[in-house]
Structures are given as C-alpha cells and as structure tokens.
Amino acid sequence: MRRARQGFTLIEVLVAISIMALMSLMAWRGLDGMLRTQNSLQKRSDEIRTLQAGLAQWQTDLDQLAELGGTPSWDWDGKVLRITRRAALNAEVQVVAWTWRDNPGRPDGGDWLRWQSVPLHLRGDWQNAWNLAKEWSQTPTPASQAGEVNIHPLSGWQLFVHRGGSWTNPLSSDAVTPGSSTSSSGSTAAMPPPTTGSAASSTPPDGVRLILTLPPGPSGAGVLTLDWIRPTLSGGQP
C-alpha cells in the first residue's frame, strides 16, 4: 500500500515513454507510406486521364475532317500533321496541327503537342492559319504558341496510313495524295461548306495508325498503338 501511494519509479516512467515513442514512430511510418502510395496512385491516375483525353481529341479531330474544294484537309510532312476540321458552326472550320517536339529538360524525349486556330470563315484566314501551323512546328514563336496545348510526354511517335487495302508510310509514293495549297492571303472569299465524299485536293486516308512511345513514368512505359478508321471509306477495309 505504501508503494502504491508513492507512484511510478523513474525507470518505469522512462520505459513507458520509450514504448509510446516507438509506437508513435511506427504509426508515423505507416501513415507516411499510405500517403506516398495515395499520391503515387493519384499522379498515375491523372497522367492516364490526360493521355486518354489526348487520344480522344486525336480521334475527334480526325472524325471532324472537313473536305473542302480547292483546299487540303490533310497534310503530313514527317514532322507535323495538319488537318482542316469542322468547327462548332457548320459554316466555320479550324486548322489543327499535331507534332512531337524534343524537350531538352526531359531526359526521356519530348512532348506530344496539339495546336489549333480560332474558328475560320474566310479562305484567306484559313490560308494564314495553315501556314502558321507549319511555322509553329518548325520555329515556334510566342504568337504561334498561343494555340498550343501540351498533351503528354513522349519518347517519339510514328504515323502509318491505310490506302488501297494496306498500311503504308504516309510519305511513300503509294500513300501520298498530291494536292495544291495555293496562297490566297488577303482574299475575302468565304470558305466553301464541308462536303462528304467529294474529291478534295488532298484526300484523307481511309485509316490512320498512331504509334506512341511512352517514356518511363506513372502512366507506364512502352509502345501504344491506336487505329482510326475513316467513317466513309474510299477503298478496302483496314
């Protein structure tokens, strides 16, 4: 009874404090591990959603290709893909461009980029936007980068087109459709309405195969292939 009234000894207090400190350290490590795992999963989820949004935008741009009389709707020069697509209003179109650009600050490659113009109604405005898209891919300026969106990190990309029943390199003689792009800067002629199935100066392919090389990252690494099929085919099925 006398010992109970005296309370704990110094050794007992030190032992109790040591046990509580050890338990707190174990709990902190467990909580820290859970937070790190949650942050990693969130970052991976965000990158996957971003990549999915980019791929969906790629397909939407191709689905909305506008075949106009006297103007190309498709042009691939090995570096940038330029297309003319329908805008929200049927009387307007937009010029959209996709490219891959080397990024010195990214050790695993560069960035997959998309560019788009404002909605266009006049042929002269379209021609200016078509030229600006090419300039943007070669020597980007602050003015041309205004319409740029960084889609996703990439180590590289490839394009193949489907024409005449087979997949070919879009720059080969079998895949390239000759077209003219005569300058009409300053013209006030309105853009002709998009046509379906009519002959265009640069006919889009029946299919496009997009091959992306993803660098190591939260969204995974490796090769991703996406095939797009033209809603109205001009030849054999891919």
What do you see in this structure?
By secondary structure, the chain is of the alpha+beta class. It has one domain. It is built from 3 helices and 9 strands. Helix content is 32%, strand content 26%. Strands 1-2-3-4-5 form a 5-stranded antiparallel β-sheet, with helices on both faces. A 4-stranded antiparallel β-sheet has the order 7-6-8-9, covered by helices on one side. The radius of gyration is 28 Å and the shape is elongated. The C terminus is likely disordered.
Furnish the topology, listing elements before pairings.
Elements: H1 2-6, H2 10-63, E1 74-76, E2 80-86, E3 93-102, E4 110-116, H3 123-138, E5 148-154, E6 156-163, E7 166-168, E8 207-214, E9 222-229
Antiparallel strand pairs: 1-2, 2-3, 3-4, 4-5, 6-7, 6-8, 8-9
- What string, H for helix and E for strand, traces the elements in order? HHEEEEHEEEEE
Shape: elongated
**Percentage of residues in helical conformation:** 25-40%
Main sheet: strand order: 1-2-3-4-5
Please give the count of helices: 3
Strand content: 25-35%
Q: What gap, in angstroms, lies between the N and C termini?
A: 93 Å
Coarse structural class? alpha+beta
Major beta sheet summary: 5 strands, antiparallel
Number of domains: 1
* Parts with pLDDT < 50 across at least 5 consecutive residues: 173-201, 234-238
Radius of gyration: 28 Å
Q: What's the pLDDT, averaged over the residues?
A: 78
Number of strands: 9
